[in-house]
Design brief:
The complex is a heterodimer. Chain A is of the alpha/beta class. Chain A is 25% helix and 17% strand. Chain A contains 12 helices and 16 strands. In chain A, strand 1, helix 1 (16-27) and strand 2 form a beta-alpha-beta unit. In chain A, helix 1 (16-27) runs parallel beside helix 6 (223-232) and helix 4 (133-147) crosses helix 11. Chain A is globular. Chain B is an all-alpha fold. In chain B, 47% of the residues lie in helices and 2% in strands. Chain B has 8 helices and 2 strands. Chain B has helices at residues 19-26, 31-36, 48-61, 68-81, 85-99, 103-112, 120-130, 148-152; strands at 132-133, 140-141. Chain B has a two-stranded antiparallel sheet with strand order 1-2. In chain B, helix 3 (48-61) packs across helix 5. The longest helix of chain B has 15 residues, at 85-99. The two termini of chain B are 16 Å apart. Mean pLDDT of chain B is 84; it is low at 1-24. Classes of the chains: A alpha/beta, B mainly alpha. Chains A and B meet through helix 2, helix 8 and helix 9 of A and helix 3, helix 6, helix 7, strand 1 and strand 2 of B.
C-alpha cells in the first residue's frame, strides 16, 4: 500500500483523448497524473507480433491482453471479456495499454458536419448536442494541429483555418474510383491523422498498408505519440494501474481513486480534479462499479444514463471485381470516400451514411477464398493475381440513434482481478436498417460504374462493427437526461470530468476520435482557463504534440 | 518468382543427379504426377516421406520450384501439428498417382467420396500460401514474407507492414 500518489489532476486512461487533455493541463502548470490499466507497448514488438501472427486478419492479435487489464479478443475464440446480452451482438474491440486503442486505428480524423449536432431540431430524430459546430471549430483546429491532420476541403465539414497538411497522395485505385464515379458520386480524400509530409517529428507515409493493426513507421498519429507528448510536458504516467473504484466525499466531490497493481495490491490516489478517459465501455463500467450508499446506482448516474445510449457505426458492404486492375494494397488502407450522403432531409426517415472504399490489400482475403474453394495447381496463382488486382469493396458507415436500451452494464462474471466484466446490450434499430437498405442502390450503382462482376453483398441483416464507441456518458444540458454538461463536467460531481467518445450524444457518420479529442481539449480549457496570454503559452498549446 | 540462396532450383531436367536420390523420388511418382512436376525427379529426397511432401506440395501449389528450406520448415511444422501427417501425405500422393486426378478437381473428388484425406490439401495449401500451420489455438505462423501468396504478387505489392515505396509512389499505375 503506497497510498502516496497525488496530483492536481488525475486522469484515468492514457488513450489519445485523455493524454492530449492531460498534456494541455500540464502545459498550464498543473501537476497531472495518468493512471493506465494496461502495460506499455513497443512499436517494433507489435510489428513483429503481427508478422508472426497466424491470424493476420485479426487486428487485435498483435495486442494480447494483460491478465490484470483484459480487453475483448474474438480470434481464435472469444475470450469472454465483453459479455453479450443481445439481442444483436456488439463485439467491440479496444486496447487496454498505454496509448489505448489508436495503436490500431485507421487514423480517420473526421469532423462532424454542422447539422449532426441538431438532428432533433432539424429532423425530429435523436437528440441535439448542447453546443454548436461553430463552438467546436477552434477545438477541432487545435486537435488537428496537435495530431497532424491531412485532408481535403470538400467533405461537408466547414473550417475557418486550413488543414495542417495537404491530403495524402491518392492511390491509383482511388483515382480510378474518383474518375469513374464522377459526376454521380464525388470521391474525395479522407481526413486522416496521417502525414503527407514530415510533421511532428514523424515521417510521411510510405505505404506499409498496415495502418490497422500497426503503422511501423509512425506516419499516422497514435496514442503512443500523445502519451509521449504528455510526458514531455510534465505529465506523470503510472502503467498497470487498474482503477477499480472512484471515491467521493460527503459532499459528492471526488476525493480519490483506487487502483490495483498487477499483484492486486491496492493504492489510493488523491487529487483536486479527476478526468475519466478510459473509453466508452470501461469508463461507464468504472462509474457503475463505484456505487456507494450515497450513489447506489453508480457515480454520475442520477439520470440513470450511465452506460446507456450505446452507439457505434454498423456497416454493410459490397465486394466485387472491377473491370480493370486496381491492385488495392498500394498506399494507406483507407484513403477515400463519398461524403454527400452524410446529411439531408432524408435524415428524418433513415440513417445517413458515408460510403467508404477500402484500399486494404486483398491478397489475404482472396487467398482464404481460394483455399476455401479448393483451388489447387497452377490455377491458384493465376486466380490469386486476377482477383487481387480487381477485388474491391465499398461499405457504408451508418448513423445509429441513441436508444437507452442499448447499454453497457456490469456482468455478474468477474475478470482475474475480481472486477465485474462489462456486458453489452445492443440492437440495430429500424432507422439504421432503412439507411442500409437505401445504400444498396448506391452499392449497385458504384459496381455498375466500375464494370463490376461477381457482386457479393454482405448478408441481409448482418452488420460489421466499426469500433466507434459512443453515447454511454452523453453530454447534455439537462441533468435529468445526460451524464455530463457541454464542458464534460459530470452533472453530479463538481470535480469529475469525462473525456471520451462516450460523451458524444449522437454518433453521426464519422469516426469519433477527432471529435472526442476536440471536446477533451475544450474540457481541459474549461478546467484551467487560460490565465495568461503570453505568446509562449499560446505557442505551447498549438505546438504539434510531437515525440519528445 | 523470387529466388534465394536456399532454393533447390533444378529447372534443367538433364542436370546430373544422384542416382539413389532420384530413385527414391521417382518411386513416388507415376508418369502422370511426374508430368505435373517433372523437376521433382531430380530433387534430393533424403527420406521418402519428405519426398512425398515435396511432390504433393508441388502438385497442389502448381509450382515448378519450391524453396528447400521452406519445404523442410513447413513439413516439420505440419508433422509437429499432426503425427499422422506423413502417412496421410503418402496416401494422398498415392491416390493422385492412381486416380490421375487433376489438381483442380482434387477437392471435389475427395469431398464426393467422403475421403478421410479431404482436409489434407487445404492444410498443405494453407501452409504454403499463408505460412500458417495448425488451426485455432494451436495455429502458428511459419512463414510470412515468403508465403506463396506474398511471392505470387511480389512484383506489385509488398506484404503489409513493409513499405511500398517513397511517399506517393502508390499514385502511379501498377505495373
Amino acid at each position: 500500500m503506497s497510498g502516496q500518489l497525488s496530483a492536481d489532476i488525475v486522469v484515468i486512461g492514457s488513450g489519445i483523448v485523455g493524454s492530449l487533455a492531460a498534456r494541455r493541463l500540464a502545459l498550464r502548470g498543473a501537476s497531472v497524473l495518468i493512471l493506465e490499466a494496461g502495460p506499455r507497448l513497443d512499436r517494433g514488438r507489435v510489428v513483429a507480433a503481427f508478422r508472426n501472427s497466424p491470424f493476420k486478419g485479426s487486428w487485435m492479435a498483435p495486442y494480447p491482453p494483460s491478465p490484470w487489464a483484459p480487453h475483448p479478443i474474438y480470434v481464435p475464440r472469444d475470450n469472454g471479456y465483453l459479455k453479450q446480452a443481445g439481442p444483436y451482438p456488439y463485439p467491440a474491440e479496444y486496447i487496454r495499454a498505454v496509448g489505448g486503442t489508436t495503436w490500431h486505428w485507421a487514423a480517420q480524423a473526421w469532423r462532424l458536419v454542422p447539422n449532426d449536432v441538431r438532428i432533433k431540431s432539424l429532423y425530429g430524430v435523436g437528440v441535439d448536442w448542447p453546443l454548436s459546430y461553430e463552438e467546436l471549430d477552434p477545438w477541432y483546429q487545435e486537435a488537428e494541429e496537435l495530431i497532424g491532420v491531412a485532408g481535403a476541403d470538400d467533405t461537408g465539414s466547414p473550417r475557418k483555418q486550413p488543414f495542417p497538411m495537404e491530403p495524402v497522395a491518392e492511390p491509383w485505385s482511388m483515382r480510378r474510383f474518383r474518375e469513374r464515379l464522377a459526376p454521380a458520386y464525388p470521391v474525395v480524400a479522407n481526413t486522416v491523422a496521417r502525414n503527407s509530409r514530415s510533421y511532428g517529428g514523424r515521417p510521411a507515409c510510405v505505404g506499409n498498408n498496415s495502418c490497422q493493426p500497426i503503422c511501423p513507421v509512425n506516419a499516422q498519429y497514435t496514442g503512443e505519440t500523445a502519451v509521449a507528448a504528455a510526458e514531455a510536458s510534465g505529465v506523470r504516467l503510472v502503467p498497470n494501474a487498474v482503477v477499480y473504484r472512484i471515491e467521493h466525499d460527503a459532499k459528492g466531490r471526488i476525493a480519490a481513486v483506487h487502483y490495483f497493481d498487477p499483484d492486486k495490491g491496492s493504492h489510493r490516489v488523491t487529487g483536486k480534479t479527476f478526468i475519466l478517459a478510459a473509453n466508452g465501455i470501461e469508463s461507464p463500467k468504472l462509474l457503475l462499479l463505484s456505487a456507494s450508499d450515497k450513489y447506489p446506482n453508480g457515480l454520475a448516474n442520477s439520470s440513470g444514463m450511465v452506460g446507456r445510449n450505446l452507439m457505434d457505426h454498423p456497416s454493410t458492404s459490397l465486394t466485387f471485381y472491377a473491370d480493370e486492375e486496381l491492385w488495392l494494397g498500394r498506399g494507406p488502407q483507407s484513403p477515400s470516400s463519398i461524403n454527400t450522403l452524410r446529411d439531408g432531409a432524408f435524415r428524418s426517415r433513415h440513417a445517413p451514411y458515408r460510403l467508404d472504399f477500402t484500399n486494404i490489400s486483398q491478397v489475404l482475403n482472396v487467398t482464404n477464398d481460394l483455399i476455401k474453394e479448393g483451388v489447387y495447381g497452377a490455377e491458384f496463382e493465376k486466380q490469386l493475381r486476377w482477383r487481387a488486382a480487381r477485388q474491391v469493396n465499398v461499405k457504408n458507415v451508418l448513423e445509429v440513434l441513441p436508444d437507452p436500451d442499448n447499454r453497457i452494464t456490469l456482468s455478474s462474471e468477474k475478470d482475474a482481478m475480481g472486477i465485474p466484466k462489462p456486458e453489452a446490450h445492443y440492437s440495430i434499430g429500424e432507422y439504421t436498417r432503412r439507411g442500409a437498405d437505401v445504400s444498396r442502390a448506391d452499392f449497385a450503382r458504384i459496381a455498375e460504374l466500375m464494370g463490376g462482376t461477381g457482386l457479393r453483398y454482405s448478408a441481409d441483416g448482418q452488420f460489421a462493427n466499426n469500433q466507434h464507441i459512443t453515447g454511454t456518458m452523453s453530454m447534455g444540458n439537462a441533468p435529468s437526461s445526460s451524464v455530463v454538461d457541454a464542458f464534460g463536467r459530470t452533472h453530479d460531481h463538481e470535480n469529475l470530468f469525462i473525456c471520451s467518445t462516450g460523451v458524444m450524444p449522437t454518433a453521426a457518420t464519422m469516426n469519433s476520435t477527432l471529435t472526442a479529442i476536440a471536446l477533451a481539449l475544450r474540457t481541459a480549457g474549461h478546467i484551467l482557463p487560460q490565465q495568461t496570454t503570453t505568446q509562449t503559452d499560446l505557442a505551447d498549446d498549438r505546438r504539434e504534440a510531437r515525440l519528445s | 518468382m523470387a529466388m534465394n540462396e536456399h532454393e533447390d532450383v533444378v529447372a534443367n531436367r538433364d542436370a546430373p543427379v544422384d542416382a539413389s536420390r532420384r530413385r527414391i523420388l521417382a518411386g513416388l511418382l507415376t508418369a502422370y504426377t511426374a508430368s505435373l512436376v517433372p523437376w521433382a525427379l531430380a530433387l534430393p529426397a533424403p527420406q521418402a516421406d519428405r519426398g512425398a511432401f515435396t511432390a504433393l506440395s508441388a502438385i497442389l501449389v502448381g509450382q515448378q520450384v519450391l524453396d528447400a528450406a521452406q519445404t523442410a520448415r513447413l513439413y516439420d511444422a505440419l508433422v509437429a501439428d499432426d503425427a499422422r501427417f506423413p502417412a496421410d501425405v503418402q496416401a494422398l500422393l498415392a491416390f493422385v498417382n492412381q486416380r490421375q486426378v487433376d489438381p483442380l478437381q482434387l477437392q471435389n473428388v475427395l469431398d464426393a467420396e467422403h475421403s478421410p484425406l479431404a482436409s489434407l490439401p487445404r492444410k498443405i495449401a494453407t501452409a504454403w500460401y499463408l505460412g500458417v500451420v495448425g488451426s485455432g489455438e494451436t495455429a502458428r505462423c511459419v512463414a510470412y514474407e515468403t508465403a506463396l501468396d506474398a511471392v505470387a504478387v511480389a512484383d506489385v505489392l509488398k506484404p503489409p507492414t513493409y513499405a511500398y515505396g517513397s511517399y506517393g509512389s502508390w499514385a502511379n499505375k501498377p505495373v
